[in-house]
Amino acid sequence: MERSEKDKMLAGELYDAGDAELQAALAATRDWLVRYNAALATPTRERRMLLAERLAAVGEGSTIRPPFHCDYGFNISVGAGVFLNFNCVILDVVAVTIGDRTQIGPGVQILTADHPRDPAQREAGLEFGRPVTIGRNVWIGGGALILPGVTIGDDAIIGAGSVVTRDVATGATVVGNPARPLR
């Protein structure tokens, strides 16, 4: 039996992003995002209920301030006490896991979507994803960019505007483009 493009996507394999099932999921998420982003003035508890409609997991006491943007939502798991400030973007073609009490500044982008290096595969509309895992009690400064496949250890700090291209060790502080540990 042939696997669906969604199954391939979730497995991190090459998949056709134009697939009808995936396009329908993107459309459903866009509709949900319109509702969620219009809820800025509603109480945090009500916004958390909206998040639970679409995200894989939303821990107790977590807040995502609108506007917020994502691809699918169903690949995002947020621990307890997590805070995402305004204008965060999560491209979640595969799993994005954010640990308890992590704080994420405004304008942060977390990207799992990647593209083949082979031009013929790109031209054919194929993509793939690599999961992003962010540990507990991490602080990510505003405007940081977390690239596909990165794991950030517990208690790490990501400086504002940093571009994180590699894994970050537990307790490390990284800054810059590409992000490098502070000595």
UniProtKB/TrEMBL annotation:
Annotated keywords: Acyltransferase, Nodulation, Repeat, Transferase
Gene3D superfamilies listed in its UniProt record: Hexapeptide repeat proteins (2.160.10.10)
Gene Ontology terms, MF aspect: acetyltransferase activity; O-acyltransferase activity
CDD domains: LbH_MAT_GAT
Domain Maltose/galactoside acetyltransferase: 6-60
Keyword Mitochondrion carried by entry: no
PROSITE patterns on file: HEXAPEP_TRANSFERASES
PANTHER family: ACETYLTRANSFERASE C18B11.09C-RELATED, SIALIC ACID SYNTHASE-RELATED
Name of this chain's protein: Nodulation protein L
